[in-house]
Amino acid sequence: MDKILAKTVPFPESLEEHTLHCLQVFQSMRQAMEEIPQIAQVNDFFDYLFLSIFFHDFGKGAEGFQKQLTEGELWGYRHELLSAGFVWNFNLPHSFKEAVILAILTHHKDIQYLKENEKFNTKSKYNIFAREEFQRRRDELQKNWKGLLSFLKTLPSYSEKFLGKKLSFEPNYSSPRDIEDMFCKVLAPYDKKIIREEKKTELYEILLRGFTIAIDHLASAGIYQIESAYTHIEKRIPWEKNYAQKKASRIKGHCFLIAPTGSGKTEAALYWAAANQNSKGGKRTYFILPFTASINAMYHRLQKYFGKEKVGMAHHKAKYFLYKEYSEILDSPKEAAELARSITQLTKKIYRPYKVITPFQLIKAFFGVKGFELQIAEMTGGLFIFDEIHVYNPHTTALIAEMVRYISQKLQGRFLIMSATLPRFLKQIFQEALGGEIPEIRLDPEQLSQYTRHRVGIIEGSIEDCYQEIRDLLQHKKVLVILNTVKKAQEVFKNLKDLVDNAYLLHSRFTLKDREVIEENLDHAQLLVGTQAIEVSLDIDFDVLFTEPAPIDALIQRFGRVNRRGKKKELAQVWITTEIGEESTYIYPQEKIIKTLNILKSLDGRPLKEDQMEDIVDQVYSEGYEGKDAKTFQKVQNQFRAQIEELKAFYDGQHKEEYYRLFQSVEVLPNLFYGEYEAALREKRYFDAIGYLTNLSYSQFWKLHKEDKLFYANELKVHVAKVEYHSRLGILLEEEDELNFL
Fold first, then answer.
1. What is the CB neighbour count within 10 angstroms for residue 294?
2. Are residues 481 and 417 in the same domain?
3. Cys bridge to 637: 367, 398, 404, 428, which one at CB 3.0-4.6 A?
4. C-alpha span between 143 and 377 (Å, rounded)
5. Around Cβ 418, how many Cβ atoms within 10 Å?
6. What pLDDT digit, counting tens, does each position of 601-612 carry?
7. How far apart are CA 552 and CA 442, in angstroms?
8. Are 614 and 338 in contact (CB under 8 A)?
9. Beta bridge partners of residue 542, listed in sequence order
10. How far is Cα 242 from Cα 696, in angstroms, rounded to an integer?
11. Strand, coil or helix: 121
12. Structural element, H or E, at residue 81
């Protein structure tokens, strides 16, 4: 049997060895995720998954495939089309046999790919060639037929070992010609039913393909056991629980946690996750955060508690940040790049029990983008912790709410939604998605009073009217200035930057390399000017804030960058100007800004107490989403709900274009760095090349395109912007547009 190879890269492995390694992964998942059959509503789900794994590579016994591995001679056929036929004689209910066969057929390529390739489509009555090709390839099994049958006879003993029960199977195959064509018998009829809408995808079909792919990928990577979460974490968090943490550790099921920054929300969430974990630590735990900076910070924080192997992170720049981190440790950039790639690839599999991600990494699965079945399989029965849920726009909130509904109802996931302030209308949205009233954890007024950190001040006019006061304060305090647009932030910075040696500007239109340099120096900054990008940046702490007006939830985020830990001797002053520029109304609803200002004016000169914040938020958002926002929310919610219900297992990329349109920005290369970018690519320093890129909103992107200031460099495969760029100012554009606000 050892002579039948399954693969040669990264190491030679026989078919039996690879299958046994897959079955080890299967056993690890089966034991860790014991609730899967009950959630899938298929008691024998693991039986069917075992069969998918056992048979998935039998077609590799074909002589041509073996020559491809040993001699490099391209075979030009799909081994899955032969593998699936070995299941046909198994005595199973038809719908489950169909699912097992389809999971095998599509564990590399989806139905659409197989159907559209004339070489494989044996169902087409005009395609005699495909039928003859199948027969010819099937005959190639003859050389290794005895070995395949010998391995087949081990199924009862291996099922007893890895599945925990013996499956009986008497293979009624005398020659390869007994292996029937599963494209014709199963795939084509299934596809026809899907096209005619005579059948809807069942959850067990999604899970079967997802787990089959995940197990094959892990075993191929040399990983034979998945990591488990901790079910008892007291020893991992070596201090006594506070009030919120004690309550969280006793709640089973969904929960809201309302508590200020610095009150131990993260640890409370970990206690909640441990309380809702299964006995084997198999439920995957997701920390869902809105911004890459906070994700990177949480990733390192959780690694300190649980170790590097158990914690992963996923966002669009995760590989880049890991590369930069490992470049400082390893001598070789190539080694750092390979390590960053392998870490992020493993995080995509069902391996690490703790993941720190953006909501879009989860939402992606419900657009049917390739790999969605694996993602949904991992989410099943999972634990989901949302932090700062209030920061998303109505469109994204609608997507999240519908995803939460599906995961909680269909996948039996559990949710902890936490925030320093959670508007009542948002709470109602998520209560409805989660099926009713949900327990809340919140601190009492006496406890909250300990977290009062700011004194409100109102300044009639604009930021420009504050220049003299800023100059005076810079003599002895660290000053933070936040504007609503990039253009305004650049103008203010130009006027203030020479007042101190260590002044910095921060917004979204810097290249990654320059932004990193800025963020690395923020601890020593005397003056920081920027946009909302500061709200989501690193863990910074200033003495005083000057900010343009914005809705209360945005202002609270800004306040959190001043006296962050509440350890300053006196309350930090936060100054809010009253002038609402036209450009600010492109970003925020004007009525929300006005409501916020009216309420804060009544607090002018007084401490802003933590127990007041939620009341202010509820007053500003008393009507919830209004006008255009309300219509957007309702429309997206209805459309996404229908889309989720129509997900089809075994098909990739169903709504791929719609998913990528969610991101309202485009990566561009400032023309200044064309040479450096080209050199980095030529020298295969791909991660260094990424450092020269920055983002523009779609509207600004198309504006530059119309002005002939943008071109696509085919040889570099990147859009190049012919714009002025400065390492301290970022991209300089003539006009602000309504979306370019970060």
1. 19
2. no
3. 398
4. 37
5. 23
6. 999 999 999 889
7. 20
8. no
9. 562
10. 44
11. coil
12. helix 80-83
Is 16 buried (19+), middle (13-18) or exposed (0-12) by CB count in 10 A? middle
* Contacts with 320 (C-beta within 8 Å, 6 or more apart), sequence order: 340, 512, 687, 690, 691
Mean per-residue pLDDT, 651-667: 87
CA dihedral (124, 128, 132, 134) in degrees, to 10, reads -10
Angstrom distances, CA of residue 4 to CA of 52, 78, 130, 182, 305: 19, 16, 26, 23, 44
Contacts with 173 (C-beta within 8 Å, 6 or more apart), sequence order: 86, 89, 149, 152, 179
Distance CA 683, CA 672 (A): 19
Dist CA 345 CA 217 (whole Å): 10
Task: Quote the CA–CA distance of 608 and 262 in Å, as a whole number.
Answer: 16
- Does residue 331 surpass a pLDDT of 90? no
Q: Which residue has the tokens 């039948």?
A: 4
Alpha-carbon span 113 to 106, nearest angstrom:
9
Domain containing residue 719 = 664-732
If asked whether residues 49 and 193 sit together in one domain, one would say yes
pLDDT in tens, 93-106: 999 999 999 999 99
Q: Give φ, ψ of 417 to 5 degrees.
A: -110, 115
Write out the two tokens for 204: 């067990």
Residue 291 lies in a domain: yes
Is 133 within a domain?
yes
Q: Indicate the pTM of the whole model.
A: 0.94
| Selection from 356, 347, 296 nearest residue 321 by Cα | 296
The torsion angles phi and psi of 657, rounded to 5 degrees, stand at -65, -40
What is the b/e burial string over 699-727, where b = at least 16 CB atoms within 10 angstroms of the residue's CB?
A: ebbebbeeeeebeeeeebebbbbebebee
φ and ψ at 188, to 5 degrees?
Answer: -65, -45
The two tokens of residue 20 are: 């046994």
Helix axes 45-55, 203-220, angle to 10 degrees: 40
Coil, helix or strand for 201?
Answer: coil
Residue given tokens 């790049």 in the structure block: 337
Sign, CA torsion 559/560/561/567: positive
CATH number at residue 81: 1.10.3210.30
Q: Which two tokens stand for residue 551?
A: 């809705």
In the predicted model, what is the mean pLDDT of the chain? 93
